[in-house]
Structure formats: C-alpha cells, structure tokens
Amino acid sequence: MKTTDTSTRLASLDVFRGLTIAMMILVNDPGDWTVAYPQLKHAAWSGWTMTDMVFPFFLWIMGVAMTLSLGKRMQQGASTGALILHALRRAAIIFALGIVVNGFPFGLGAPFSLATLRIPGVLQRIAICYFLVSVLFLKTKPRTQFITALGLLVVYWAAVKLIPVPGYGPGVMNPVGCLCWYVDSNLLAGHTWVWAPAPGFDPEGIVSTIPSIATALFGVMTGRFLRSERTREVKTAEMFVAGWLMVLAGVVADIWLPINKNCWTSSFSVFMGGWALVCFATVYWLMDVQQKSRWLEPFKAFGLNAITLYVVSELLATLLGVITLTQADGKAQSLHDWIYAGAFVPYFSPANASLAFGLVYVALHFALGIVMWKKGWIIRV
Q1: Mean pLDDT, residues 83-98 taken together
Q2: 59 or 329: whose pLDDT is higher?
Q3: Handedness of CA 299, 305, 308, 312 (dihedral sign)
Q4: Which of 47, 116, 183, 261 could cross-link to 52 by cystine, CB 3.0-4.6 Å?
C-alpha cells in the first residue's frame, strides 16, 4: 500500500539526527588523534573524509526540522514576529552554549583568558544559520529561498576567487593566503581555533559561514518537499535522484573550486547537501517505506536531545583533559590519558585502541540519552 506522510514529526529525521550526533561525538573524542583512522579525522585541507560529512549533515537536518516545526506553528496561528523572536532567543542560547564550550573550564585547571577565547565554533555557526534561515523561511517564498541559496554559493565563489588578499592576490586556496584566513586573522585576531590549519584561520570563521547558510537552506527545501502530498515511495526515489545529482554537481565544481570543509566552499556545500539527501533517503526508506526500524529506533535517544548530548560530550572531554593524576614517577598525567593507557592501549593495536576509546565514549552518552528518552526528558534548546 502506498502511503503519504505529512506529519510534523518524522521519526526517521530524529534517527538520522541521532546517527549524526553519535558520529560527531565519535570523531571528536578519540583515544589518540595521532593514530586514529584517517576516516575518523578531518581532511587536512582540501578533500573530504567521513568525518567532514558530520557538521554539514547537522546543518541540513536543522533546516529540515525547522521547516516541519515552524510550519506547524504557522498553521496553528503563531505570528511571524513571535516566531522570529523565538528563533532569535533560541539562537542566542545556542551561541552562548558555544562560548561556554570554548571557554570551559574557565581557568579551573587550564589557562583561560578573554583575550584569547575562541569566538567562532560549531554551536555558534549553528546559531547563526538557525536564525538567518528561520527568518528566510518565515519571510520569503520557496523560490526566493532557492535563489538565495544559489546566490550565496555564487557570491562566495566569486569572493574567494576574485577579491585580492593583500600580499597574496586573488584566488589563493591555501591555509595562508585565502580570503577566509585573511578575514578571520584580522577581524577575529586572537579569537580563532588554536588547532586550525594556519594561525589566525578558523574553520567556523566569518566568510565560510556564507555557504553554510546555503547548506541549511538545502535542508529547508527538503523539509518542504517532505510535507508535500507525494507518497513516501515517490519521496524516497526523488530524494535519491536529487541527492546523487547534487553529489555529481559537487564533484564537477571541485574542478574549479576544491571541495574543502575548512573553507566550506560552494562545491563542499553542494556535495555534502547531496550526501545528506542520499543518507537521509536511506533512513527514510528503511523506516517509513520498509517499516524496518527496530534496530534504528534507539538512535532517537541521541536525536531528541542532540544539542544537550553534544554539549555534555564536549564539557566532559575537556574535564578528562584537565583533571590530572600524579604517576609513580611524580609526573602528571591527564585522566583521559590515564584511562586510555590503562584500559585500551594494552589490548588493541594503536588505531583500534583509539577507535575503542571513542566507541566507549559514544556508548556512555548513548546510555545517558536512552535514560533521558525513556523518562521523557527532552531538553529543548
């Protein structure tokens, strides 16, 4: 029997979000970065790995969910002004959480200075994209949103290719000399990520936020499509076709503008938007068409409290790094390294020990998510 699905809450979307957050925690918290499998690390510069799919997937999911939730509230009679105010309030909370994550533990066991506090970040970019895309969704028509997404990608492409960077010229796509690096190193001097590919550069910086808004808009377009009266079978097929076409378009665009997560290039935005469609269509097909969801259902535990579990994972990881133990030889060792060296290194190869640590870390947060899910605790950030 062919079925339609116009509900405002998709279990398959919650599961896809949960899978994405689980992967985000896994790649953010290995036992040892130096020996981790290459696919569990970001590409050093251009190119992509499985890890590079995680953040764009989350922005894309946010766009889909926004369409469903805000669309429902509009149908219930909420005013545009009230919804924009709600979006602004939520974005401010998420942005503030990002600053907390960056600054934690605020001098307790680790150096802290407002002069060097990183301002950009994952949550900060989510907040900015959430607010701007919410306004676009609430105030413009679908055609305008499509043109805006395309326009952002074209404007970004033209900017990085045509605007000359002092001392380097236009079109440079290296860590030092690209437009993203120049803007961040000047406007965010001292407040960028210390582990970035180049000093002063930030992978969640100012210029690279422009095409990331387009990524979220791709999610909005998908959300509108999912609310249509098409059957689930047709939706699945069309998402697969559109997704693979976007992946192909990203590969072709890579010829002229490299797929690069660090700069979130236009080719990267299209490429990952396509992969998000393909991967979500797979989950949607399994859960909503084939009704084979029993083994996927538990991932709702991550999906329903995604931001909360991400923040907890980041804060706990920081604590494991700053809490130190004194060894027999008098040297200090972080709690993270003590656990890793004692419980994982002796029993696995280096790469597998790092992976095992990450999987146990994910399992710990999965257990927390399951408890919250079973008790009905959904913290809406």
Answers
A1: 96
A2: 59
A3: negative
A4: 261
